[in-house]
């Protein structure tokens, strides 16, 4: 009995849990915590279609058993012990899915564990043509991602002198000069959160740790100038005119 | 009249489905945000990463199951098989570019390939499709071009490499004396059942049945694979991989390992690896872009529903060695 229930309904129940979770995230504007916005419409439409199919399965399948010539013990073991373990696994998986998708609140990636050497290795992920197009745009609308891409490509000092920066992100100490330089960083998402890469721009502010902590969210305004730090590896850094703590934004990632 | 009974809608079944949705929605809406405050740090990140893999993959899995249902239930019997060349080599060549018509990424290709196997394709042919389609489809090609253009031969190497490796694996499995032994016994049995197309009146029921069957096969594997991928992401520092980036051999191995762990969708993996372009050699980038769409943690978990562990180990070894050779060749030639 339980084997038949598991074989026939496990996928449909997991589908409904996933569908409810996705549609709730979409409705509350939090789907971006897990996937890139380019997938929002596709994800929601596919979830609705799958929900209809799952409900359809409930509505249609109970009437087919008498006609059924297929093996509904399905893709599982034949021995009694094997079926028992499969059954326990199905219960554990369903419970874990229920808790993680339907009970746990949506959450963002931990910011305190990011290291500055991760940033310098992966900074900037825009194709060269898109980076070139940035020059000439309004720099005050640039996020950390656009500035990181420009710095990585080697933007000249004349440009940075004329174009102020106003960015927000979380704080990461620069390992090369942790007393005087920190990064304002964000996680950049390419596809989904699993590919998140920290990107950031350096800020030169001596003794910044007296007023800020690692992982704290801040807004920084200022201009990029040649980095005054003697040990930092970053050639340019923001010399801030304002650094103010902020709450973590509802959409903390850049895409 | 069985067919009339089969297509009748069960009010009780419908009610159970609706009640279940209502219960899930109620749980979601009433869940107290602070109840799980203790789950943070690495554990919290692991759960977030696993959920992101699941939420990103689920639509593609549903799409693949949808295509599979269309192929098995709604298209005329033999519709696909009749249009394929009869000789095995050109047949596999056509199958390896079928992704152009069915642009589903690798997650969706697994249920689709299962549908092809049930519809009569051989193991070698399905394997060729399974490995080639995530790379040889328009979305993947366009995004790779947007990321790299013609630079360092990355795009050309990816297309040619994916095509050649998929056909190499297809040839090997088509020459095995008992290719069906590559399948799990249960799936082999289900392939041997007469899957002739259902009468028109039963198609809805058969579609619902296939949906229930395929989601039961795919989703547990996807969820477990996503959990493993999320936990490994938290446990293994990328620093270890990135420090190997400038060595011709180790850079290729490191990015293949990264592709295996990250399990990123082939449609956008080019943008992900673009960020590593300055750290890693071109051959390593190509290896990432060829190996990842064919083999990764999430894919292996899903493929295990269909193929024996021994088969997957052999395919993984074949694809890994071929990709390694490809990556080294690109590093030496470019």
Automatic annotation (TrEMBL), chain B:
Membrane-traversing stretches: 61-81, 93-117, 129-148, 155-173, 217-236, 248-264, 270-291, 312-333
A cellular-component GO term for this protein: plasma membrane
The name this protein goes by in its record: Permease
Keywords: Cell membrane, Membrane, Transmembrane, Transmembrane helix
Origin superkingdom: Bacteria
Membrane topology designation: Multi-pass membrane protein
Pfam families on file: ArsP_1 (PF03773)
InterPro entries (UniProt xref): DUF318, UPF0718
Assigned protein family: Belongs to the UPF0718 family.
Localization of this protein: Cell membrane
């Amino acid at each position: 009995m339980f084997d038949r229930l598991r074989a026939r309904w496990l996928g449909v129940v997991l589908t409904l849990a996933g569908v409810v979770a996705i549609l709730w995230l979409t409705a509350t504007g939090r789907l971006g915590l897990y996937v890139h916005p380019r997938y929002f419409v596709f994800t929601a439409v596919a979830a609705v279609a799958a929900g209809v199919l799952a409900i359809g399965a409930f509505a249609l399948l109970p009437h087919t058993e008498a006609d059924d010539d297929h093996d509904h013990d399905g893709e599982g073991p034949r021995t009694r012990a094997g079926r028992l373990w499969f059954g326990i696994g199905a219960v554990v998986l369903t419970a874990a899915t229920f808790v993680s998708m339907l009970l746990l609140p949506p959450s963002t990636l931990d910011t305190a564990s990011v290291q500055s050497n991760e940033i310098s290795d992966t900074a900037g992920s825009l194709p060269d043509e898109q980076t070139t197009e940035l020059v000439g745009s309004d720099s005050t609308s640039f996020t950390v991602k656009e500035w990181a891409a420009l710095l990585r490509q080697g933007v000249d000092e004349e440009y940075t002198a004329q174009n102020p920066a106003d960015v927000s992100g979380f704080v990461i100490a620069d390992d090369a000069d942790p007393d005087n330089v920190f990064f304002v960083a964000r996680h950049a998402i390419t596809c989904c959160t699993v590919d998140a890469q920290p990107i950031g721009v350096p800020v030169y502010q001596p003794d910044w740790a007296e007023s800020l902590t690692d992982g704290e969210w801040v807004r920084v305004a200022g201009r990029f100038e040649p980095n005054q730090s003697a040990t930092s590896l970053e050639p340019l850094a923001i010399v801030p005119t304002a650094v103010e703590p902020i709450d973590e934004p509802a959409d903390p990632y850049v895409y | 009249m069985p067919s009339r009974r089969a297509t009748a809608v069960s009010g009780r079944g419908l009610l159970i489905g609706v009640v279940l949705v209502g219960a899930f929605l109620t749980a979601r809406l009433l869940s107290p945000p602070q109840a799980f405050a203790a789950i943070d740090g690495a554990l919290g990140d692991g759960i977030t990463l696993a959920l992101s893999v699941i939420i990103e993959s689920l639509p593609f899995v549903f799409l693949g199951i949808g295509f599979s249902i269309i192929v098995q239930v709604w298209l005329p019997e033999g519709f696909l098989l009749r249009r394929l060349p009869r000789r095995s080599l050109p047949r596999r060549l056509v199958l390896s570019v079928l992704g152009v018509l069915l642009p589903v990424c690798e997650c969706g290709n697994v249920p689709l390939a299962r549908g092809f196997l049930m519809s009569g394709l051989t193991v070698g042919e399905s394997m060729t499709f399974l490995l080639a389609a995530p790379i040889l489809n328009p979305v993947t090609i366009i995004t790779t071009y947007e990321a790299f253009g013609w630079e360092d031969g990355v795009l050309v190497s990816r297309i040619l490499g994916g095509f050649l490796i998929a056909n190499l694996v297809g040839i090997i499995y088509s020459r095995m004396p008992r290719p069906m032994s590559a399948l799990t016994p249960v799936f082999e049995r289900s392939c041997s059942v007469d899957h002739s197309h259902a009468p028109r009146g039963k198609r809805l029921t058969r579609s619902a049945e296939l949906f229930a069957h395929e989601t039961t096969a795919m989703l547990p594997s996807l969820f477990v694979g996503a959990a493993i991928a999320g936990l490994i992401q938290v446990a293994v520092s990328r620093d270890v991989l990135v420090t190997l980036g400038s060595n011709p051999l180790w850079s290729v191995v490191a990015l293949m390992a990264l592709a295996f762990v990250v399990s990123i969708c082939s449609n956008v993996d080019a943008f992900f690896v673009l960020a590593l372009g300055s750290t890693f050699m071109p051959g390593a980038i190509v290896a990432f872009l060829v190996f990842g769409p064919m083999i990764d943690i999430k894919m292996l978990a899903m493929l295990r529903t269909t193929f024996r562990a021994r088969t997957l180990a052999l395919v993984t070894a074949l694809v890994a060695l071929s990709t390694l050779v490809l990556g080294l060749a690109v590093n030496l030639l470019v």
